[in-house]
């Protein structure tokens, strides 16, 4: 059967783990586990006795003291009950490996840690200090000491500090899982109590509020606080608790808290006003009352907490699957991982080319649109104009004009015309090259597991770019060779089939000397060459795509990473590990997820193992 101590201790351990992992506060998709667990926010005006109440509950003198605003940062105080006889000690979250057994050093560290963030001014900060105290003299509790509420700013403080403190306190007490410990001094009019006023606003039903009346021993003679303590003046759902603080003289004499607790018990037992309430008064009773109520709250909220934990486990496991599991240390396993990642990338790249993913159709666009358009734009009209034909033919003839047909002129015109095809051929190769580079880039980005390894990503990108450059060079050589082949050997039958001039008697004859240099003659030559170039253009429009696909696309599908694989086989274990060097932010995120998953699973197991009476 679970005891109150074990149940609250379980929550305390989970809260402690949450703070260590940084799972405290912040905006998340689900409420954090910390926020789902109950804690006690200590609220009161400045000099209301908050510090004395906390020290009484802990049984140790460990909080900074002074006039004005002393608590300038929230103090998240987690009390862990230990076995009797064990030494008491304290730990700060910002000093996880240091144990404090001297509680005067705890007070000093709180002051120094406060000054580290706020400076030695009277400024405040919402950044909490996390302190855990392990002692056999405490009950398992999480208490949050907040800056004291005030109505005016003192020297050295901005005018906005009144509102800043209230907003900070509200951010804690407005949470539905927060219990409110409203501290009010008995020698102050309850109607002016900042703590009661604020708790009434955020908890109008009083379900979460515990009223604490301090400094009962300092009330004017002949007066008492029975009307409040008995719930007649200001009734709450939970009974009021009276506290007797240590006097300043006791503090100056270093009277320990155990003795102070004994004097407090004696005060109530001997008081004619409060004697009948003695069993329900004092800091020890307050601690037990809070623990008992926390037990009840925890029991009622365990199903919701369990549901939250299960949802968090599912989300974290899903994220870990997305982030990928940690990399193996063994060199063989690392090589296998790299090869698997390369195959995954290669598979996606081929899907782009083959139509399973978008992008491969752009290569066909180069052949169907860009290449024909480039061929149509070639300046053959200018090159084969009568004026240019006359110039080329005359230069080819030299000092001896051609006798029949200007063969040398024809050849020069054809050679220079065919040279224009080099541009579209090279442009086709370059266009496909850039499409392939873009598909590589896209494929690397779409290989999810590869995102973990920026070094391997860069190596694959470099290796594929080098391979594509080789394929491009081969493609250019092949397509330019096609153009050169057309220039190397002209199709003679084409010219034999050209219509020849016919004499009136019906016999073909060569043009006369007078006809050779007329514009009509040069226009016919240009027309003949244009027809031949057109035939070659149609041929190249079909053969250039074949060469490009063969040299670039097919090779990219077949051997894009072959050179990389060859180099990979020569690498040693350390070099393989460097390739699998993950993004530090991703590694940190996986580590955080793994720790939080471990926390949630541990919390679930502990909750499942705890049973309690209804």
Automatic annotation (TrEMBL):
It comes from the Eukaryota. This is Dynamin.
């Amino acid at each position: 059967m679970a005891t109150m101590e074990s149940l609250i201790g379980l929550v305390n351990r989970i809260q402690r783990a949450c703070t260590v992992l940084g799972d405290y506060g912040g905006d998340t998709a689900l409420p954090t586990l910390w926020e789902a667990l109950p804690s006690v926010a200590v609220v009161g005006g400045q000099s209301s006795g908050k510090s004395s109440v906390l020290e009484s509950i802990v049984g140790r003198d460990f909080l900074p003291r002074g006039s004005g605003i002393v608590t300038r940062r929230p103090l998240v105080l987690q009390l862990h009950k230990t076995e009797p006889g064990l030494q008491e000690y304290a730990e700060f979250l910002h000093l996880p490996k240091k144990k404090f057994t001297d509680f005067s050093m705890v007070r000093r560290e709180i002051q120094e840690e406060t000054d580290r963030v706020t400076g030695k001014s009277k400024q405040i900060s919402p950044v909490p200090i996390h302190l855990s105290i392990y002692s056999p003299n405490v009950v398992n509790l999480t208490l949050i000491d907040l800056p004291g509420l005030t109505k005016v700013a003192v020297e050295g403080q901005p005018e906005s500090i009144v509102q800043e403190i209230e907003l900070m306190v509200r951010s804690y007490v407005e949470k539905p899982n927060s219990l409110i410990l409203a501290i009010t001094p008995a020698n102050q009019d309850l109607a002016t109590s900042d703590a009661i006023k604020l708790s009434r606003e955020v908890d109008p039903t009083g379900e979460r509020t515990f009223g604490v009346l301090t400094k009962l021993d300092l009330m004017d003679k002949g007066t008492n606080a029975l009307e409040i303590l008995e719930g007649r003046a200001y009734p709450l759902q939970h009974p009021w608790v009276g506290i007797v603080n240590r006097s300043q003289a006791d503090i100056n004499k270093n009277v320990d808290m155990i003795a102070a607790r004994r004097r407090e018990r004696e005060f109530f037992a001997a008081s004619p006003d409060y004697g009948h309430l003695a069993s329900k008064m004092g800091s020890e009773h307050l601690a037990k009352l809070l623990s008992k109520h926390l037990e009840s709250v925890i029991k009622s909220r365990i199903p919701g907490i369990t549901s939250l934990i299960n949802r968090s486990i599912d989300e974290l496991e899903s994220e870990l699957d997305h982030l990928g599991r940690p990399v193996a240390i063994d060199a063989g396993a690392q090589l296998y991982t790299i090869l698997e990642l390369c195959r995954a990338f290669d598979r996606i790249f081929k899907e782009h080319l083959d139509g399973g993913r978008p992008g491969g159709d752009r290569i066909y666009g180069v052949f169907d649109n860009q290449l024909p358009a480039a061929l149509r734009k070639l300046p053959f009209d200018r090159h084969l104009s009568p004026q240019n034909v006359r110039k080329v033919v005359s230069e080819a003839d030299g000092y001896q004009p051609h006798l029949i047909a200007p063969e040398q002129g024809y050849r020069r015109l054809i050679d220079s015309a065919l040279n224009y095809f080099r541009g579209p051929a090279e442009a086709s190769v370059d266009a496909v090259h850039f499409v392939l580079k873009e598909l590589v880039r896209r494929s690397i980005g779409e290989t999810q597991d590869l995102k973990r390894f920026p070094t391997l990503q860069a190596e694959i990108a470099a290796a594929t770019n080098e391979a594509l450059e080789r394929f491009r060079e081969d493609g250019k050589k092949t397509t330019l060779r096609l153009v050169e082949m057309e220039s190397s050997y002209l199709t003679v039958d084409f010219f034999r089939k050209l219509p020849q001039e016919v004499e009136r008697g019906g016999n073909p004859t060569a043009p006369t000397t007078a006809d050779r240099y007329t514009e009509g003659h040069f226009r016919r030559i240009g027309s003949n060459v244009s027809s031949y170039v057109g035939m070659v253009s149609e041929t190249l429009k079909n053969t250039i795509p074949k060469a490009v696909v063969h040299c670039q696309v097919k090779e990219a599908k077949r051997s894009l990473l072959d050179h990389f694989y060859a180099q990979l086989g020569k690498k040693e274990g350390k070099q393989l590990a460097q390739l699998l060097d993950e993004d530090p932010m991703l590694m940190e995120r996986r580590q955080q997820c793994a720790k939080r998953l471990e926390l949630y699973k541990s919390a679930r197991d502990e909750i499942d193992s705890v049973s309690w009476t209804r």
